[in-house]
Queue: 2 jobs
Job 1
Amino acid sequence: MQDKIDLKSLTLEELKEQITALGEKGFRAGQIYRWLHQRKVSSFDEMTDQPAAFRAQLEQRFYINRITVKKKLVSKIDGTVKYLYQLRDGNCVETVLMQYKHGASICISSQAGCRMGCQFCASTLAGLERSLTASELLDQVYMTEQDSGYKIDSIVMMGIGEPLDNYDNVVRFLRLISSPEGMNLSLRHLSLSTCGLVDRIYDLAQLKLGLTLSISLHATDDETRSKIMPVNKKYPLSDLMKACRDYFAITGRRISFEYALIEGVNDTPAQATALAKLLNHMNCHVNLIPVNPVKERAYRRSTPANVARFQQQLTRLGVNATVRRELGSDINAACGQLRRESVGKEGSI
Ligand code: SF4
């Protein structure tokens, strides 16, 4: 398998090059691409319009990525489903399917583990195992559609891992999932969340993909942010906020800010005022998230009264802020905990 090419990660143009290099007609690339990305097959034998000899040739040169359901938790309250998917090399990642009035949404992981070290996050406790390939990103969507029977309308890249730390594969995934010959998802229905890798925010802005950029902000001053998010030492708030303003100027897309409320750390009235000042009439939206406790850390979620007060104060100060509705609260272990329980503390199976 090592030498074989990951077929599902190829763009249509790359696939055409590969197919013509094998001496076959280019139109076969379009057929194969649709088998992979529209009918979502997982074996060459299912590509019944391809000659058997050619299918055997394909099998020798390429592989079709597959992920499998290792564990599945279904919320009795609202039907939210949390999947633990096993990758080909045994690594595991989490994917969450949420059902809203307007359709089904999925939250996918971009890496097995994470090296960003955010203090309130279980995904980073054992560090980074590896980044996911484009086909592994796609398969979280494809597999979830197949397993659940739902058509996915929107995607959030907010699961395990930092998407911009896996930049090339993530951009490849974005191009594949939005391709008209594939799933054809409008990237206006995709939101990518980053802890603030400023250089990559500028790279992404240049691509003008139309997606929503979501910034995990979580603090309003460098001292607090560096304490809970080590990435802030490299990219302090002044650089991050400038990048956000520039991103909006380049793409015209409103930025979303995530703010996980942690008791006594970032949820005081003074911090609400500081947040409004930091955002300074920016065209943006703030998502307030009562943080999920991680048993290895001492952080506690803000009380409901504090969350409500924080939001009301932001609204009074002219900031568009909502509290994220909690879905699947009965299966709602903090992101990364299911994987961690399954792989043990060292992060490998
Ligand atoms: S919050 Fe995101 S970027 Fe930070 S450690 Fe967790 S997965 Fe990584």
Job 2
Amino acid sequence: MAKMRAFVATDSKAKPELMKVDIPQIKDYEVLVEVAAASINPVDQMYRLMQKGMQIKTSYPFILGNDFSGTIVALGKMVKKYQIGDKVYGRIKGTDSGTFAEYVAVDSQVIAPIPQNMSLTDATAVPLVGLTAYQALFDRLDLQKGQKIFINAGSGGVGSMAIQLAKAKGAYVATTVSPRNIDLVKRLGADEIIDYHQEDFSEILKDYDAVFDTHGQKDTIKSLKILKSHGKVVTIAGMPEIDFARERKLNLVRRVLFKIVSRPIIEQAKSKDISYRFFLMEPDGQQLRKLTTLIENKQLEPLIDRIFTFDKIEEALAYSKKGHNVGKVIVKIK
Ligand SMILES: NC(=O)c1ccc[n+]([C@@H]2O[C@H](COP(=O)([O-])OP(=O)(O)OC[C@H]3O[C@@H](n4cnc5c(N)ncnc54)[C@H](OP(=O)(O)O)[C@@H]3O)[C@@H](O)[C@H]2O)c1
């Protein structure tokens, strides 16, 4: 069997490492992609197994990595939309093989052609953060033109995409950043910019329709203060709650746990007629095509912080783990 280089988690204690493994076999509905680049997301730091439904692998060994861009080199029997040689990108499904590898076998439903005005390397900065921002703003918050939204951590991978998508919709956007990133988020279109080192957003913003919380911690509960009655908070980094556990069909232990840990915020939200939801993004090829169009129309541009080579993947992960990257950290595989 032909081999490839991949960054593999072998068990919960050992550090993942670069090793030779079999090139994955494709199923009828999958394509095999020769990976050009992969981008790093905070979820890639988690190589300990998680419960089914949390979208993270459930048995060892597994290849890390979720985002990829590359060239199709083989097609499953049922794949009609793509051809060998197509340049594509995507965020894999939990059941697909990982993207920190020379090849990835991926469900053809979750991929899309890369934007024509982008290199393969840069394109890998888009899928996971772009889809997360899109789903939060439009599927979860139902953001409308003219509404006021607060998106924290505006210089992060998700935050920077969300600011641009909200502006393309015609919303009024407030965000938090460090002083060095003020000009950057201004260029992305943010209307109100708060230096989070100096000021507390919850003392400044008032009467907002929506909050997209991409940072979590104390920001999540504080964000209730800035919303109108019937406002909405959607978090990707705050406390999961019981509806999330039900939606993901998590077991009873998780349901009870999430109910207990989210009680303070749920009670505060209810008392102010605010809705509070945690969600996990879903891979989605159709929505990724919409992002491709926005990028080709120059309404959306991913921010790229640094590009590492595959040999330096551990350095790339360590750099990203510090959490002060501006946009995406990319690993060039080919
Ligand atoms: N639930 C889901 O489906 C889902 C999907 C994607 C991501 N996530 C989660 O969402 C979070 C964000 O992901 P990401 O990929 O956007 O992360 P990221 O790119 O690593 O975010 C880093 C950015 O956060 C900024 N930041 C750090 N502390 C801040 C603070 N107190 N206030 C404002 N900005 C701050 C940093 O700016 P400075 O350098 O200026 O501090 C940096 O630019 C992570 O926790 C991730 O796990 C969840």
